[in-house]
Amino acid sequence: MRNRLFLFILAVLAVNFADALAAPVVRVAVAKDSGAVKIFIAGNFRITDLISKNILLEDKYLGETSLTSYGDGFKAGDLQVSASAIGIEPLGGVRAYINDRVFRGEIRVFKNAGKITVVNAIDIEEYLYGVIRNEVSTWWPMESLKAQAIAARTYALNQMKESKGKDYDVQADVNSQVYGGIFSEKWRTNRAVDQTRGEVLTYNGAIFPAFFHATCGGGTFDAANLWNIDLPPLKGVKCGWCGKSPHYYWERWTPVGEAEKKLEAAGYPVGDILGFDVIRRDPSGRILELRVKGSKGDSVLLAKDFRRIIGGDIVRSTNFKVTVVGEYVAFEGLGWGHGVGLCQWGAYYMSRAGKKADEILYFYYPGAKIMKDYGAGTAGAAREKA
């Protein structure tokens, strides 16, 4: 009996240990096309040629200095190595500091036309430690944090699938998910990551881009209106949860002259802006297409392009009204963000009402399933979360 119990415990430990090793490595661009970055490593490290895999250097300390492209390689203070791409691996629990941020994992550096791109290669779970706190508040209910962790993990894995052959999978800013390294880690958000380890969203057994945004403003948006994506979990749903969000209703004003300059720089020289006409809206109320009337002629733009040109901090969503008031363009609208997928403030209020993470995710991504083991093959399918 004791032997059987001992073998059972070993089997459980083996499964858990295997799961711990199974986390994929995500490559995060923490600096892109920079002339130089500040680097500091307070301990042992190794530099490897990423192409040949040869060890170029091992040292015990790298004081704060600038890392730059130099000749046929790279230079950091008095240190020089010849390679087109290098891996800097801190050893024995040492961390690397890049531009005053601290990162777990390996640092990879690529050069192109005298510029460098710095990539943090890191276990996806540890990557999420540095993401979740930047996307939602640590004081939010745990079920909303868990929902965010699953969505963010799914999004990152989908980007990894789409980025094969590239130097990085995701960026560390709003172009992907905001990642701040160790300084962004908090106990509650780390716990949400740990409690959902390996859990991802799938549709018909495949991972999909699990987009999310701050506030939908009453209904989420069909991803097909923004990108070449036509999936049932991303078609949009009516949301009655985010009405108390601080971003539900917004007003912004911008000088007419600034809007005219931005439009002209983007290839729409309308001259003096005379007014706007909405051409099409979707069922959620978001503008799909609008006309800018100008003294030099009219221009018809997709609303997503108009928002990008004027600025996402001014036009917070495409669900807006716009008028010219004297020397200003006045906007008022609902929601903040592109509107596709998970509404973060909706998730907050759903969790406040007692909804669990899976209920939240199944509401915002209808038809999706939560799978364990990163949704990997039949093993993931066999361990679908109930």
Sheet-strand content, in percent, reads 25-35%
Structural class of the helices, strands and pairings?
alpha+beta
Give the total of domains. Answer: 3
Radius of gyration: 24 Å
Largest sheet: 7 strands, mixed
Instruction: Return the average pLDDT rounded to an integer.
Output: 92
The end-to-end distance, rounded to whole angstroms, is 32 Å
Sheet with the most strands: spatial strand order: 4-3-8-11-12-1-13
- Overall outline: globular
Spans where pLDDT lies below 50 across 5 or more residues: 5-21, 377-386
Count of beta strands: 24
Percent of residues in helical segments?
A: 25-40%
Summarize it.
The protein has 386 residues and is of the alpha+beta class.
Task: Annotate the secondary structure layout.
Blueprint: H1 2-21, E1 25-34, E2 36-41, E3 45-49, E4 55-59, E5 62-70, E6 73-76, E7 79-82, E8 85-90, E9 96-98, E10 101-103, E11 106-112, E12 115-123, H2 124-129, H3 132-135, H4 142-162, E13 170-171, H5 187-195, E14 200-203, E15 206-207, E16 212-213, E17 249-255, H6 256-265, E18 273-281, E19 287-294, E20 299-302, H7 303-310, E21 320-325, E22 328-334, E23 342-343, H8 344-352, H9 357-364, E24 369-371, H10 377-382
Parallel strand pairs: 1-13, 16-23
Antiparallel strand pairs: 1-12, 2-5, 2-9, 3-4, 3-8, 5-6, 6-7, 8-11, 9-10, 11-12, 14-15, 14-24, 17-22, 18-19, 19-20, 21-22
Helix pairs in contact: 4-5, 4-8, 4-9
